[in-house]
Amino acid sequence: AQSVAQPEDQVNVAEGNPLTVKCTYSVSGNPYLFWYVQYPNRGLQFLLKYITGDNLVKGSYGFEAEFNKSQTSFHLKKPSALVSDSALYFCAVRDIRDSWGKLQFGAGTQVVVTP
Amino acid sequence: NAGVTQTPKFQVLKTGQSMTLQCAQDMNHEYMSWYRQDPGMGLRLIHYSVGAGITDQGEVPNGYNVSRSTTEDFPLRLLSAAPSQTSVYFCASSLTGPANNEQFFGPGTRLTVL
Lengths: 115, 114
Prior knowledge:
By secondary structure, chain A is an all-beta fold. Chain A has strands at 3-5, 10-14, 19-21, 24-26, 31-38, 44-50, 56-58, 64-68, 73-78, 87-95, 104-105, 109-114. Helix content of chain A is 0%, strand content 52%. In chain A, the strands form three sheets. In chain A, strands 2, 5, 6, 10, 11 and 12 form a six-stranded mixed beta sheet that branches. Chain A has a four-stranded antiparallel beta sheet with strand order 3-9-8-7, with no helix packed on it. In chain A, strand 7 and strand 8 form a beta hairpin. Chain B is mainly beta. Chain B has strands at 4-7, 10-13, 19-25, 31-38, 42-51, 54-57, 64-66, 76-78, 87-94, 104-105, 109-113. In chain B, strands 2, 4, 5, 6, 9, 10 and 11 form a seven-stranded mixed beta sheet that branches. The chains are: A mainly beta, B mainly beta. Chains A and B meet through strand 6 of A and strand 5 and strand 10 of B.
């Protein structure tokens, strides 16, 4: 079985400061990892994914994430947060052996960026 | 190109009533899925489809039916609504499986069952 943990319900950061949203995962085989963002009253939007290759993945809106196999983590980062980054962020994982790729989502982390 | 559309946006049902949540996409995506979103639980997969005529169960399928008669449409049916089905429902699609392709999500349907 696969699972995802987002240990923080909420992350508060001042505008201009670095932002980190944590994610750890558990799969039997090798993982495919994703980050999605949800703005209020909207559906989820894709940010970035790790499939294979470079452990540092760059995505939309200046976000990046680092895959760490030994720590089974895939933390989302942004060097300088904006007020407009305030949203709900979801990490998701899939075992590559699952041919039709049912994703397991974490519970979500609310990011609040204050001016 | 409208992407993924869902109707209605809001719905209130009484226990025991039935209804269908509509989902359509105009991107010629093979893969479509339904999720429910509940506070503190993230998104949970209800049903999914890998193409017209092919559907399968996800993590929480009980109380829901789906069909996929065309590539574009993937309706979700609640046969006898229960208060436990109060949730926000999202439809999503992707070119193939969501494994290595981003999913495109609709705006959601907020359902309340009294």
